[in-house]
Structures are given as structure tokens and as C-alpha cells.
Amino acid sequence: MFPPGTRLGQEWLAERFGVSRQPVAQALALMKAQGFVTDVGRRGLMVNSLTSDYVSSMYEVRGALDALAARLAAANCRSADQRASARAAFDRLLAAGDAAIASKAVTDLIAADVAFHSYIYTLSKNSVISETMEPLWSRMRWVMSAYLREHDWAKGTWGEHRRIIEAILAADPQAAAAAVDAHLVNAIGLIEGSIGDGMTKLGAAQFHSPISLKGDREVSRQNENQEKSDEK
Fold it and tell me: What pTM does this model have?
């Protein structure tokens, strides 16, 4: 976990996590591509911070796509067979959500939330929505992870999920989109309330790597041996 503004160097990170530079370089490249860090020239990479404007912009894009997905999903649930299939899938997702709430594990809560919304994208039968949202979800997880570590919003969130499901299974596109809009308005209101001075008051801007740099010792040895071989 690193606060915003922290400069990240390959050698320092490799030493800290006990791995070779190869997985560190791969992780940093992924973080840069996903917007977690910024290239600051010869000084290396620097951890980005979360601002209210940035979070609002993310939710504006997500709101438009999620509402569209919900409308299309509802339109695709007009037959009895379609509704039965969707209901079975939603029941499994709700069970996963309830289990995540019971566990209180942030990673489980985020995974269940992403799975729920991803299924609606699938049900919309518009592949561009999923393709567009995939990179955005990396940033959304960043925000959600930080907020969930300090707040208990999961029960309310899954209550809103149930209202979205009801509208979709009722084959009511307008109601489905409205339920999604209400869900995201509530989410952004809660999250923005904890953001100030360019970073979250509660540590949401503190950096969480999207992948773990701490591999097992065998993998580390293999990477180091490969580096030595490459140098020869």
C-alpha cells in the first residue's frame, strides 16, 4: 500500500517484495496502462491520487453504459425461457453477494459486485459494453476497495441490486435503467463524500497493486536464473 505521490522504482520494489525485477516490471507496466501510476520521466513512476472530478467522470461513463445494459437486458427477458434462465443466474449471483456480505472480505465483495454487473452486460447481448467496461473496472475496483475498507455499504448495495433484477425480469427496460441510475447515484454520493484535497480522507487514494508482487520463492528463483542467463 503506497500513498499518492510515492515514486516507485523497480529495484526498490523487487527488494521489498523479495522477487526479481522481471515481475516488478510487468506489474508496473500493467499499473501504468490501467492508470494507477504515472510516468514522471527520469524519476520513474509515481502513484496517482483519486480526485472527486476523476471519480465523478468514471461514474458518469459507467452510469451511461450500465443503464444501456440494463435496458437491453430487460428487453432480452420477454419470453418465459429467457426470464427463467436469467432468474437462475441472478439467484446464483445473489447467493454469492450474500456470502460476500457475511464474510466481510473486501475482495469477495468487489468480486461479487463485478460479477453481478458483468452478467447484466452479458444479458444485454452487446459485447461492446463489456469490452468498454473491462479497463474501467480496474479503476472502479481501486475506488471500491478503498471505500469498502472503511464503510459498510454492501447490504444497501445488494438491496439495490435486487431492485435492478426485479425490473429486468419484469422485462421493463425503462424501470431497469431507472433502478441502475438510482444505484449509481447513491454509490457516487457515498464515495464522493469521503474525497477531499485531491485524495480520499479515508485512504482510498492509497495504492493497492492490481496484482501481487509477492510470488513464491521458486518462481522468484526461476526469474533470477533467467535474468542471469539473459545477461550471459
Answer: 0.72
